[in-house]
């Protein structure tokens, strides 16, 4: 036998702790799993680095990297609250119409001129040329990302090195770099035939090629000091 539940009894679980409204674009903090409207939590994290509900520090420098869209929660909210999704879609359409109307007349001409200028900058004529130094200045090569300091040590079996130790074992990389990037780096530095010939380990556990450094730090090196210690060794080939 089913028991009916009133919507007001569920409100504490499907409302945003910042604006007190129903969740829109539900976004969850990965450190404590509290959920808020995306616009609310993004605005909050522009000024603060802690969770508005439990006050836990998300990250000292890059708290925005530790939030993620919670589509399951958003679907639950839309199913529980009648008409919420339709009203939100209507508000989005009204906003788009308002922005289009704003860009009419002189505003539209100015908007088109800005786009035209941007097009010329992004697609220069063949006669224009720039030096390699100027091209490099347009790319930060992920220097703006959260950085992770790592130490790449060669795995020692029976007191002997299985591969040649790196001359420079300390590296500073983007937190979005993956184990595959490291394997390709090692293959080049150690003159290996293929990056698949080397395994990378953390805490004696072989890491998957798609694991990012951020994921490894959070799951394998969370309460340990800097730098992140990784080992490499010849891959174990099973025949």
Please summarize the sheet with the most strands.
5 strands, mixed
User: In what order do the strands lie side by side in the largest sheet?
Assistant: 7-4-10-8-9
Shape: elongated
Number of strands: 10
Strand-residue fraction? 15-25%
Number of helices: 8
Would you give an account of this structure?
GO terms for molecular function: zinc ion binding. This is Polycomb group RING finger protein 3. InterPro entries: PcG_RING_finger, RAWUL, Znf_RING, Znf_RING/FYVE/PHD, Znf_RING_CS. With 239 residues, the protein is α+β, with helices and mostly antiparallel strands. Among the domains are: 74 residues, Zinc/RING finger domain, C3HC4 (zinc finger) (Herpes Virus-1, 2-Layer Sandwich); 88 residues, Ubiquitin-like (UB roll). The chain contains eight helices and ten strands. It is elongated, with a radius of gyration of 25 Å. The model has no long low-confidence stretch (mean pLDDT 81).
What are the SSEs and their pairings?
Elements: H1 7-14, E1 26-29, E2 35-37, H2 38-45, E3 67-69, H3 71-80, H4 84-102, H5 106-122, H6 132-137, E4 147-154, E5 156-157, E6 160-161, E7 170-174, H7 179-189, E8 198-202, E9 205-206, H8 213-220, E10 228-234
Parallel strand pairs: 4-10
Antiparallel strand pairs: 1-2, 1-3, 4-7, 5-6, 8-9, 8-10
